[in-house]
Amino acid sequence: xxxxxxxxxxxxxxxxxxxxxxxxxxxxxxxxxxxxxxxxxxxxxxxxxxxxxxxxxxxxxxxxxxxxxxxxxxxxxxxxxxxxxxxxxxxxxxxxxxxxxxxxxxxxxxxxxxxxxxxxxxxxxxxxxxxxxxxxxxxxxxxxxxxxxxxxxxxxxxxxxxxxxxxxxxxxxxxxxxxxxxxxxxxxxxxxxxxxxxxxxxxxxxxxxxxxxxxxxxxxxxxxxxxxxxxxxxxxxxxxxxxxxxxxxxxxxxxxxxxxxxxxxxxxxxxxxxxxxxxxxxxxxxxxxxxxxxxxxxxxxxxxxxxxxxxxxxxxxxxxxxxxxxxxxxxxxxxxxxxxxxxxxxxxxxxxxxxxxxxxxxxxxxxxxxxxxxxxxxxxxxxxxxxxxxxxxxxxxxxxxxxxxxxxxxxxxxxxxxxxxxxxxxxxxxxxxxxxxxxxxxxxxxxxxxxxxxxxxxxxxxxxxxx
Amino acid sequence: xxxxxxxxxxxxxxxxxxxxxxxxxxxxxxxxxxxxxxxxxxxxxxxxxxxxxxxxxxxxxxxxxxxxxxxxxxxxxxxxxxxxxxxxxxxxxxxxxxxxxxxxxxxxxxxxxxxxxxxxxxxxxxxxxxxxxxxxxxxxxxxxxxxxxxxxxxxxxxxxxxxxxxxxxxxxxxxxxxxxxxxxxxxxxxxxxxxxxxxxxxxxxxxxxxxxxxxxxxxxxxxxxxxxxxxxxxxxxxxxxxxxxxxxxxxxxxxxxxxxxxxxxxxxxxxxxxxxxxxxxxxxxxxxxxxxxxxxxxxxxxxxxxxxxxxxxxxxxxxxxxxxxxxxxxxxxxxxxxxxxxxxxxxxxxxxx
Lengths: 467, 353
Fold this sequence. Notes:
The structure holds two protein chains of two kinds.
Chain A (H helix, E strand, L loop, with lengths): L1 H45 L12 E7 L6 H8 L7 E7 L6 H8 L3 E3 L12 E9 L2 E8 L4 H11 L4 E5 L4 E2 L3 H11 L3 E10 L3 E4 L2 E5 L5 H22 L11 E5 H6 L10 H15 L5 E12 L5 H21 L2 H4 L5 H15 L1 H17 L5 H29 L6 H27 L24
Helix pairs in contact in A: 1-6, 1-13, 6-13, 6-14, 8-9, 9-11, 12-14, 13-14
Chain B lengths: L1 H51 L6 H10 L3 H12 L7 H7 L1 H12 L3 H14 L7 H9 L6 H11 L5 H13 L6 H9 L5 H10 L6 H14 L4 H9 L5 H13 L6 H7 L5 H10 L6 H10 L5 H13 L4 H8 L4 H14 L2
Helix pairs in contact in B: 1-3, 2-5, 3-6, 5-6, 5-7, 6-8, 9-11, 10-12, 12-14, 13-14, 14-16, 16-18, 17-18, 18-20
């Protein structure tokens, strides 16, 4: 019996060694590429290697909203202050139960119209269309039957006039130059079909007129830990995948898409939880299937500030949605593994998301079970295990700190000594506790899972300071 | 496993220290940069006084510049210093006097990487206007366009727009087209619009060489001409009659005829609104707003029932801009096509008839 267990444990050890070597290598490469890009980008900016123009391409900003009465007016106001000359704003109220539409009607001079909207994408019925023009910017407010975020985005696409559209969450605040930055990859290369912007946590900043007045690391642990977590995933990891156009996720909070390609693929799916990731995966497979040259870019200089969940309950709910969205998106496109395995997007990105994102929590649980089993059979090398845990946690802390400093530099933020201390505390907590909480949430995500669920994710919103 | 993690740990620690060090170095660099700008301002000011007294620029100054400006940190500081004198009465004389320096630097930077070449081109673009016209500078800059990245080609083009020989611009476009490099039409158009010299001559040169240009460059050139002049009605009408005009180019030419309508192309547009390609019908329905009379109104009325939503939308907007009669509008508003009715009603409300 002991021999069988020992052989089993040897197999498990080999598996885990391979798994962790691969994962740490990935993390290491992501920070390394982050550093290289940081240096490169800084040099480019200093040497005016930038496409700076007075006028860029016209863009439709689509903001789907559901029960966003607290933040919606501020978000729209922030959109009226952008350093961009030609854009329209389309707000789609997906049948909110609160006063989202009324708040907007009170805040801006909308008038109801019978504007005909092309129905290239099938959507739920539109109840009313309102239009306004503020500072020369056309704003359209569409109130429709509830159909989920994907459906609301599809209505926005149908109503949009311009060849590129930007999606934005209703609680998001764009930095003044965000549109200018996110369109630049398209000007540089017309084969770019989608661009992801960098999403930051809004609770850290005070903004006025689209400019960051002040930045502080928050003391609230749940928010602080998300700040450092975002740094690692939004900056380091995405920069690495961007080297080969391999990002599978463009956050719904801030992304730019070429409309004709999105229409060709059928728009957003309405029967999935992670509609943003699902769309990007579909764009990849569509372009690869049709042998069309394309690029999906990530542009960390295009910054959007979005509210993060402020309570454990909200974060658990949000992460459950994200995890289920990841699951639905990955299982929907097995051809990434079969037909496109030789492409970097298939071999690296798709595999990474399967092994280190989707399966990771189960592998971690399996690891804990085998540790218990090994202990039971007296096969556990406790000092080795503790050393491994400590060095691995230390490695995670260093990675997160590096990503944190890289981001601070990228955004030109002024840090106080206290912020650095807070960052140190948060990365330690994040690596020692928070990630295990998230693993637990992911493992239990499938409890009560309904494939057809298309409810909006909801977190408690707070009013943003000094917008 | 532990060894690998230790190795990564220490390398990451180094990367983190590099990042922190780099952030601190920024502050140091900014301070040094400001000092350099002040120094260059002082030096330039001295030379401007010499120019003001109608004395020749010191050869020592030229040698100094050639030596110093080979370094990017100095070139960026020098640029800032020079910009601060842009309204000085003698700055043109000073710039003329340092033209040989620029010629030498152009040759030097040809061997540097794309980023430095792009900055040097930006530097020339910022200061050349009306002063540096030596062909040797632009010949050298044109050599930079061998498989250039987007920033390099954009900055080289910006520099070329600042000299008064359109031939260098057409040559640059031909070079890019030969290499099958697509430079965004918007960048081409905006760049051409900044050309400060004889735009008619530039347009003529570009038009004559149009068959050597790639599609994105052609679209930019047409956009530029559309913005500038109505003088190309005849030439563009003839171009439309050519056999192999790419679809996008044809549509761009249609748009020219929206801004500068001419009866010469009316028949072509009336045919286009019935063309099998959606894109042609969409644009033709929009352009016909600027044309008159019954045949146009009838064509637009028919287009109101097109299966394509955009054709219907453009046709209804255009129809309201023509001399359409109440009877014609009533035909649609009381007709069987509910899409046409809804569309027309909306534009009647918003844009009036």
